[in-house]
Amino acid sequence: MKGLRPCSLTDRSRATIRDVALLSSLSICTVSRALRGLPNVSEDAQRRVEDAASKLGYRASSAAARLAGGRTGSVAIIVPRATTWFFAQAVEAAEEVFADSGLDSVLISLRGRADVRERIFGDLDALAQRVDGVLLLGVDLGDDEVQALAASPLEVASMGLSGVPWDTVGIDDVQAAHAATSHLLGLGHGEFAILAADEDDRGTVGTSGDRLAGFTQALAEHHLEVHPDRIIKEPSSIEGGYRAMTELIDNRGLPEAVFAACDEAAFGALKALREHGLSAPKDVSLIAIDDHPMSTVLGLTTVAQPVADQAAFAADLLTERLQGRSGAPQDHRLPVALIERKTTRRPRRQP
């Protein structure tokens, strides 16, 4: 896990929730829930958290967080939209970490509206009167916005961004797509299509280019390539996946295997297959990235990314900055994991 290592307590004024997570070998989310006495934490996990916290001398201190954090003791969590499962899960995880450190959270949804975006990023001094720090969850930024945030009095951290002058956490989207495609190749598939995201202006960090790159790299390693007609770009949604798979079936020919750039697109693809009297994996292997909660229900093979842990980790890094940690910005890429379910299998070829 790139850059994720325990920090010596001589480097910081006190142990953090991340230190407890590392020592207990549990996720930041699980540690936060255990420390706050929330449900859905096993007895074993609760014991490991308590043992690690005791060894480190960890103690959540709202007074310390507020004193080091500055004037307000509050942070803003900014998301492109607050209604999708991805951002809802990320927000909840970040809020738990902030609450554990005694920080209040202010949720700001940009709602895909330019006027809301301009009001927030166009007057960061006004935002700094309300909060001491900003956590950006999957918010795509222009160069001017990056420069404005860096020059503002706000502490900043992000999830999903890269190449920014503050702490950030994410996954390697190239690697995730490579893992998904390698699974299909390992099953013996030789014909492929990709339901790639059509990046639009909704303000969400784009992943389509990296995931397409990982897909094509894996094929190239096996001396294969995808036909341009089988790279279909639609929005990353159930509706987009439905339209993309329908276009593939009706006009471009169904290959042996399809990689959908996100789980929701795969859900739409499954619907299109069903309406055409087809199914996965009988007629085509289908794989995606995310591990949406519905993926288990639908039996979707996917590459899981740790959504909650990314947000919790980024929130922890922001909390540390508010408590006085200095040093160069950190860029952490968390690992992904292939989860094989029922929508992929070896191809059945005619003799």
Automatic annotation (TrEMBL):
Entry keyword annotation includes Transcription: yes
Entry-linked Gene3D superfamilies: 3.40.50.2300, lambda repressor-like DNA-binding domains (1.10.260.40)
Any one Gene Ontology molecular-function term assigned to this protein's record: DNA-binding transcription factor activity
Domain named HTH lacI-type: residues: 15-69
Disordered: region residues: 324-351
Any Pfam family matching the protein: Peripla_BP_3
Bias type Basic and acidic residues, positions: 330-342
Ranges in coiled-coil conformation: none
Segments passing through the bilayer: none
Swiss-Prot/TrEMBL keywords: DNA-binding, Transcription, Transcription regulation
Protein name from the UniProt record: DNA-binding transcriptional regulator, LacI/PurR family
Source organism (scientific name): Arthrobacter woluwensis
